[in-house]
C-alpha cells in the first residue's frame, strides 16, 4: 500500500475515534463457522489450505490504524506504538488501563516486524527486542528484554508437549493406583520420565485411617509446574499451545485484539476505537499457518540435495562437532531428537490442556464454531506446502518442510531441547521474575515464579541462522552464549572451555549447521506442476470459504 493511502487510513481512523464512533476493521477476516462447515462436510483438506493461506496473509500483513493495530498509548494523541512500557499512563483509556493488562508494547505493525531473520518466520535482531515491565512499576531498572525466536516447525513442540504431558499424568495415575494397594502410611514414589526426559519424582502416600485417602507430593518435580503440563513456548516455558502464543503476541506486540480474549465481541479493550480486530477464525488461521511452517533443516541436508555448498573439510568439522556436542554434555538438555507418536496436528487440539475449554475472558469456544470434534488438521509428515524440492523434470525429490517419519507411524522432531526449564545461573539473571507477576504476559498463563535465572531449554534447531542469542539477544556469537551458561549448565560450559581451539571450532561449526530454510510453495518447479495443496491466493481462499 502506498504511503499516501496509509496516511489517509490513519487520519480517517483518528477522525472517527475522536468522534467516539467504533471503527470497523477492513481486514478480510476468516469465518470460523465456514471452516467448521468445510470439515463437517468432508473437505478437511480445503479447510487446511484455506486456513493456511489466510494465516500466511495475516503473518505478513502490515495492519493499519483502521484494522485496530496499535493502542491508545497516550490519550488524545496519535501515538499507537511504544518500545518502552508506559505504566505511567494511567489516565482514562490509557496504557495502564487496557484489557487485558499490558506488560509491554504495542510496538509493531506485523508479525514479520520481529520474525524476519534470515527469512520471514525467522528470528529477530536486537533492534526488535521487546522491553517488558512485568510488575508495571515504571521502573527502568526492573524492565526485562526478550529477543524474538523463529516460528518455524511449531507443530513439533506442541505435539511433543501434548504427549509428554499425557505420559507424566499417566505416571501420577500409576503411582496413585499403586498407593491404593500398600499399607496405610506407606509411600509410593515414581520417576516422572516422559520421552526419556526426567522431570523429577512424584510421591503418593496412603494416609493412615479408615478408607483410602491419598496425598500426592510433587515437591521433587524438576523443570515443570505442579500441573505437570509441558509448556513449549515463550522463553520461560509459560505458554501451552500455538493459539495461546499468537493471541498474546497479537495483543501485546501489535495491539491487534482477538475477540476471544475480551468479554464481548464488540469490546474495545485497548481504547483505539476499533472492535473485532481478530476473529476466532483469524486465530485458527494463524495457528494453522505457524504449525505448518517448515521445520528447520541442516546445511548437510541442503548440500545433499544440491541446495547448499559444503566442502569436505566443513562436512568433517560438522560431524566432529556433533560428537563434541554430545561429549561435553550439551545434548543432556539440548536433546537432539524426540519422537511423537501422533502425526496429525489439530486445531483445536483433542487434549483439553492444549486448547481453550473456555476463552480467557470466560466465553465458551463451541459457541464460536471452535469445536475439537471437527478441527482443522494436517499431517506434519507430508502436508506442509513449503520446501517441496523437485528435480529438473518437476518430480518431488524431498519434502524438507515436513518432519521425517520414524518408521513406526510417528515423526522425528529434531528440536535440540528437552522442553524443560533449567536454572542457568547468575550470567542470565534478570532484575525481576516475570513469572511471579500477577499480570501474566498471556492471559491465564500465570503459574507462579520460577526464578530470575530459569528458562525453558532453548530449541537449537535453526540456531545457525538466528543470531543474536539468549533470551535478551545480548550474546552476539554462539561462543558468547555458551559462556553465559552457569547453574545446571556449568559442567557443560566447563567441558567446552576445556576443549582445544580446533575442537571448539568444530562444535560451533556443528551448531552453525542447524539452519532455517524456506522455499515458498508458489516458487516451486514448473507452474504447471505445482503440488495439489499449493497455497491458494486470497481470491481462491475466499471462494473456498464460501
Characterise the protein shown here.
The protein is of the alpha+beta class and 546 residues long. Among the domains are: 175 residues, no CATH class; 62 residues, no CATH class. 28% of the residues lie in helices and 12% in strands. The strands form eight sheets. It has a three-stranded antiparallel β-sheet, with helices on one face. A three-stranded antiparallel β-sheet has the order 9-15-14, covered by helices on one side. Strands 1-7 form a two-stranded parallel ribbon. Strand 4 and strand 5 form a beta hairpin. Helix 5 crosses helix 6 and helix 8 crosses helix 12. The longest helix has 25 residues. The protein is globular and about 60 Å long. The two termini are 27 Å apart. The N terminus and C terminus are likely disordered.
Summarize the structure.
This protein is an alpha+beta fold and 546 residues long.
Radius of gyration: 24 Å
N- and C-termini, Cα separation: 27 Å
Average pLDDT = 90
| Strand-pairing-aware structural class | alpha+beta
Low-confidence stretches: 1-19, 442-446, 523-546
- Spatial strand sequence of the major β-sheet: 4-5-6
Query: What is the percentage of strand-forming residues?
Result: 5-15%
Q: What spatial form do the alpha-carbon principal axes imply?
A: globular
Count of individual beta strands: 18
* Portion of residues within helices: 25-40%
With helices defined by DSSP (H or I, 4 residues minimum), what is the helix count?
A: 13
Biggest sheet features = 3 strands, antiparallel
